[in-house]
């Protein structure tokens, strides 16, 4: 007879696997999104960024002439920022646009510091994801050993309830606090207190070009939905592998 302690440990591992699997699915979806420039070319039209830039760029207190740049240049400049923050922040100060025969730096010092913080955060997330992947693989191994010894300890309904609970917690948080409030609070918690991360459109071509935070809402959705799909596919494959393993 299987003890209650054994079942409890198994269920805790199952919850941990599902949680880690969801996080890793989001990480994988994020990497896919980053590889295609976060879909900026598509979101650019969706959020009417050209009109937004035309309105706010002339009001910028630090830079001149950005309103004369083309849509193609906007997309190229955004891609350069993406490439830099995914490369330890290298090249941020060299990102420039042309105006009146001059090459003008796109970013001022506060923007560069913030984007360097973003680059550092991305590097930390990569290391964290690697560590979580190792823990995930170890937990899978322990789970397989347990199943081989004790058989199927948890029913599919229990796993489904765990997944629903995870989704409900995330949805509840967004409904109660709001996506923008959570977005801002994450910045407060993550970035150094003495580093600026909020920029008015009149002070930042970066924010103007990205139409922040609107663009980030679209990108978050772009990462979340494929992440959920990957998670569900992974869960289906995991359950199939478990059944095959138990039979053999």
Task: Describe this structure in a few short sentences.
72% of the residues lie in helices and 3% in strands. It is mostly helical and 248 residues long. It has one domain (4-247).
Counting H and I runs of at least 4 residues, what is the number of helices? 9
Anisotropy-based shape: elongated
Strand order of the largest sheet: 1-2
Briefly note the structural class of the backbone.
mainly alpha
What's the alpha carbon Rg, rounded to whole Å? 23 Å
Number of beta strands? 2
Mean pLDDT: 88
Task: Give the SSE string.
Answer: HHHHEEHHHHH
Largest sheet: 2 strands, antiparallel
Could you say how many structural domains there are in total?
1
Q: How large is the share of residues in beta strands?
A: under 5%
Question: What is the rounded distance between the termini?
Answer: 21 Å
Name the poorly predicted regions: none
Helix content: over 70%
Provide an overview of this structure.
This protein is mainly alpha-helical. It is built from 9 helices and 2 strands, in the order H-H-H-H-E-E-H-H-H-H-H. It has a two-stranded antiparallel ribbon with strand order 1-2. The relative contact order is 0.16. The mean pLDDT is 88.
Main traits of this protein?
single chain, 248 residues, mainly alpha, elongated
Write the layout of secondary structure elements.
Layout: H1 4-35, H2 40-46, H3 49-56, H4 71-85, E1 96-99, E2 102-105, H5 109-150, H6 156-177, H7 179-190, H8 205-210, H9 214-247
Antiparallel strand pairs: 1-2
Helix pairs in contact: 1-5, 1-6, 1-9, 6-7
